[in-house]
Amino acid sequence: MRATLRAIEGDGHRRRPVLPFGAEAIDSRLADGGLRLDALHEVAAATPGMGDDASATLFLAGIAARAWGPVLWVVRRRDLFAPGLYQSGLSPERVLYAEAADDAEVLALMEEGLRHRALGAVIGETRRAAMASTRRLQLAAEGGRTIALLMKRHAREDADPFAVPSAAVTRWRIASAPSAPLPVAGIGRARWDVALARQRGGEPFHLIVEACDETGRIALPARLVDRPAAAGGAVARAAA
């Protein structure tokens, strides 16, 4: 992997410090107006179910798709579906895959990728990550423009991936939600139940959103966008 990283050269341009979602209902609730690029962010599926796991994976893919350069994705198992990532805006040619033997190797490879500084995003998938490990990732990300994304998988059916404290700036729970109804038989655009469980310097919130499009952007369902603030109240309450 070191040889691959050395072959990637930065373009010398300064990067914006924050990656916004492009959805006001989310960005306005984030303390930094988006996701800090020089920081660690954690994502977990709301349940161990395949639908929620896939939704969390595609949520990560959409974030990485909107980052500025190559993406390092460190996996424990070969279960990523490239066409699904592509539909969420993440082109296969941008992704460098690294397969790790265990959680410790995942975290080590992520740290090395973050310190390289020529990647747009570094993603890793683990079942366990101690506070000290997430602190190392946060320190490796600070001062750069490579967003660190850690997917916390369920270690057991009844385990909470966020039970262990973390240095992550934000922690997100993602679940699948009923898709948009269509006037004819068929399946509408996928929807996700997105919950920000914790953020540094801000409050948690909860929204129903439409899944990433081919540019990696999520959107509010039309019924929430069109609803007047006075009639519908806060979007978080309406969508909860």
TrEMBL record:
Gene3D superfamilies: P-loop containing nucleotide triphosphate hydrolases. This is Protein ImuA.
